[in-house]
Amino acid sequence: STAADADAPAWPAEFAERYRAAGYWRGETFTSVLEAGAAAHPDRTAVVDPAPGRRTWSYRELAERSARLAAGFAERGISKGDRVVLQLPNTGEFIEVAFALFRLGALPVYALPAHRDTEIEYFCSFTGAVAYVIPDRHAGFDHRVLASKVRASAPALRHVFVVGDPGEHTALADVPRDPVSLPAPPAPGDLAFLQLSGGTTGVPKLIPRTHDDYIYSLRGSNEICGVDGDTRFLVVLPAAHNFPMSSPGWLGTLYAGGTVVLCPRPDPATAFPLVESERITMTGMVPPLALIWTDAAPDMEEDLSSLELVLVGGAKYSEAAARRLEPSLGCRLMQVFGMAEGLVNYTRLDDDHETVMTTQGRPISPDDEIRIVDDADEDVPEGGYGHLLTRGPYTIRGYWRAPEHNARSFTPDGFYRTGDIVRRLPSGHLVVEGRAKDQINRGGEKIAPEEIENIILSHPSVHDVSVVGVADEYLGERSLAYVILREGAGPLKPAAVKRLVRERGVAAYKVPDLVEFVEAFPQTGIGKVSKKGLRSDAAPGRTAPR
Ligand code: J2J
Predict the structure, then answer these.
(1) How far is residue 40's CA from residue 74's CA, in Å, rounded to a whole number?
(2) Atom of ligand 1 at shortest distance to CA of 446?
(3) Which of 207, 209, 189, 185 has its CA nearest to residue 1?
(4) What does the alpha-carbon distance between residue 114 and residue 125 come to, in Å, rounded to a whole number?
(5) pLDDT surpasses 50 at 429
(6) Average pLDDT over the chain, rounded to whole?
(7) Of 144, 272, 314, 328, which is the most exposed, with the fewest CB atoms less than 10 Å away?
(8) What digits encode the pLDDT tens for the residues 352-366?
């Protein structure tokens, strides 16, 4: 057993030995990587935060500032193994705070800026977080008010640190930055952070990643994508997502000694001027955003010629859309099919054009084990499609503090059940054909129907509800809530159902796009709600959405 945290199932010793012997796990940590970068190229720019006045962090500054902040956090009583919910937008503080926590061995829990009361209260109480880091206001929302509410419900929460005006909390700027002594640095097998799963259940699961395993995925990603010291990577998706963090993302770029530029909003009007002025070479995004960029580029004035590579993934990218990206943006496309639990597949720079347009890539590592199985866990014939199971040097062996769920989500021999339906080409490339898990993929944002169904069920007029994904030309899928009203209940408007979900305090992307009132759900043989039936009802003539 390798991970230092008893709450996280670790790789069995023989696997850990194999991964070390193969040179995948090299004994590095995020802290040692940053310190090595600061020693090798201290004055090179590590991070650019363009808004509202351009701020930069050299490698030396990022290392020094995050170490000082770590000392300040330590003085405030934050120590190794403590959980800290980190909810910051794409700003330099996000990266500085993350490295400060890595240095202490405290675990960032990566919340998204869109998360609201329900999610944040859950993260804080479930993880027993001791601190919560927020912006004062972001996108019209006052995070300090939410923080005050959360403090009342999460007794372990001792600190709220605010970037900006702290209100009744503590300003991050007031955390002491004196160079005081620090505890021992983290060990390579330690947990580094808790990432959020897309989720299929009422509450999201937390993904424990170690320094060793994650850094291997960064190194592999960098090699595949050609990331080096000259790379200028634009973070357009929320920095807390696994994709912009590691594929190859801001952590991959920092690992290679490149420059990370944080984009406050992903729209072309914000991002294109930054591509031009910061001479961006690489970025990654979800298919709906890639479509917006593709459509916008011909009519925009900005010079995008610095752009060499755009990664697209997180949801199925249609072949038609893929074929339009390169001519429009004047750069290469790479498809990526990844998951925060581990396995990441990329098309390769030397793949032929058709492969890049029509597949979702092949795994990073020769030791990523892939099984494609039927409902009985038997391997399907080569080339057929089935459930994707995987295990390997950077795929977790279980979620954090979730033994019952782990028994379902992992096979007894440690393969992760991805819930994706794929087929494999002779070249090893995977094509994502669909999904077997109860999840909606709304343009790359994942929604667990059960979480939203539970909220709608709490309405006194609601007898039953089923939330499903329906095909959407633009988002790939959007969400539809089928609602059965109680007999004799007064009429309910779709808007009232949406309001109920919104007012419960969940991320806006989880509010159902559509609400329909029905008499009954389609039934399967065993009398359970058939979500598959609902989906094909909702999208006549189309295959079940992915
Ligand atoms: C179809 N479905 C895809 C793709 C992910 C890189 C890229 C993406 C993620 C990510 C990531 C898909 N085509 N190209 O973490 O490092 C769906 C699958 C998968 C789930 C994982 C990364 N790329 N998906 O999206 O943890 O269903 O990670 O199992 O958010 O997204 O979601 P998530």
Answers:
(1) 27
(2) 30
(3) 189
(4) 19
(5) yes
(6) 94
(7) 328
(8) 999 999 999 999 999
C-beta neighbour count of 7 within 10 angstroms: 17
Calculate how far, in angstroms, residue 314's C-alpha sits from the geometric centre of ligand 1. 4
Q: Which residues pair with 234 in a beta bridge?
A: 261, 283
Residue 543 pLDDT level (bands cut at 50, 70, 90): very low
Q: Which residues pair with 45 in a beta bridge?
A: 58
On whether ipTM exceeds 0.85, the answer is: yes
Q: Does residue 542 carry a pLDDT above 50?
A: no
Computed from CA positions of residues 343, 349, 350, 351, in that sequence, does the dihedral angle turn out positive or negative?
positive
Measured distance CA(209)–CA(3) in Å, rounded: 9
At 503, the pLDDT band (50, 70, 90 cuts) reads very high
Domain locations along the chain: 440-538
Question: How remote is the CA of residue 436 from the centroid of ligand 1, in Å?
Answer: 14
Nearest CA owner, ligand 1 atom 16? 243
Instruction: Look at the chain and count its residues.
Output: 546
8 Å CB contact between 177 and 68: yes
Q: Are 106 and 84 in contact (CB under 8 A)?
A: yes
Q: What separation in Å is there between the alpha carbon of 334 and the centre of ligand 1?
A: 14
> Is 537's pLDDT higher than 70?
no
And the tokens for 415?
Answer: 């393969």
Judged by DSSP in three states, 47 sits in strand
pLDDT of residue 490: 83
Half-sphere exposure of 441 (CA within 13 A, CB side): 21
Instruction: Examine the pLDDT at 340 and tell me if it is beyond 60.
Output: yes
Q: What residues line ligand 1, using a CB cutoff of 6 Å?
A: 198, 242-243, 246-247, 313-316, 335-340, 344, 360, 418, 420, 432, 435, 441, 446
The residues that bridge with 284 in the sheet, in sequence order, are: 311
| Nearest-5° Cα angle at 237, 234 to 243 | 90
Three-point CA angle 475, 288, 496, nearest 5°: 35
Q: Got the DSSP string for 141-156?
A: EEHHHHHHHHHHH-TT
Q: What are phi and psi of 95, to 5 degrees?
A: -70, -40
Q: Rounded to 5 degrees, what are φ and ψ at 248?
A: -80, -20
Q: What mean pLDDT comes out for the span 202-227?
A: 97
Cis peptide before 540 (omega within 30 of 0): no
The domain made up of 440-538 is a member of CATH 3.30.360.10: no
Q: Phi, psi (5° rounding) for residue 481?
A: -105, 115
